[in-house]
Design a protein that fits this description.
The structure is a single chain. This protein has about 350 residues and is an all-alpha fold. The chain has one domain. It is built from 15 helices and no strands.
Amino acid sequence: MKERTADALTLFALCSLGALLILNHDAVSAAVIEASKTCVYVIIPSLFPMTVLSSAIAKSGVMSRFLRRSKLNPAVAAVFILGNVGGYPIGAKLLREACDSGEITPREASRAAGFCFGSGPAFAAGVAGAAVFGNVIFGIAAMAANILANLTLFIAYLITNKNVPTNNKAETKRPAFSGLMVESVSSATGAMMSICPMILFFAALKGLIEDLFPALMETKYLPAILEISNIAGLSGCKGISLAIISMLLGFGGICVHMQVLAMIGGRFSVKYFCLTRAVAILFSGFYAFLIEKALLYFGIACEASTKIRLSQSPSLIPIFCVAAMVFITLTERRKGHF
């Protein structure tokens, strides 16, 4: 009886959402079009190269071999570094790959997902720094606060983790460079094809909410909580502290959380991820508060915000790049690589 009730409620909710999307088609379409431009001109150019590079470093085993002499699990330590500098969903993607290859267990991946999570320097400097504070130093400072928060959680993980890694001395196969890059590009393409549709769907929901409840979306932080790139609409010169921006970056937005779920694909539990992100947000705010005091002490202040504009260039190159990514993804899926 309970299962039938739950199914009925789920069906009703989905049908209601579908009806609202149809009835508010114009607002939803406009939001999806803007999100498409964001994916083509902002997300893919900034995230795709870092995803390829991070995947190549992880697959090559270079960092794992470098860390092998330490008492740390080299796979977890490598993903911690790459996940914090590569961009939000990269840590989850690399953890899943390490889990699939047997380098770490699903339990270890689940516990590590919470601290292998960061905005990356491009997004932090360009959006949180230049757009919000008019100074990239503040963006780097916000990212540093998040890294310190994740480092705190990483240390706690090392203290509480009683399992001694068994693969520290395992010989990691050294793949050919050409094959490594092809595999990394294909893997990153699949990641982009999971991330961008999630952004488009959340843009549709955002457009729907804006059309139904315009006053609700005018609240200061809700747009950024839904989709983190909306922090570009905030201004550090109008009372927005570095601690708040750092906490928003530490959270990453609901859209990014859905991207993480897409990257994990049910391979391991996200329970620890949800719990540790709540703790990390508090640590991020604390560290950012201290860093901001230091910046102000040395006379580094907020400047006029730089508004980020999406390119209006008629160039078809970005469209060809997206089409090529789709082609690669479909080809690799037919080969069974995804």
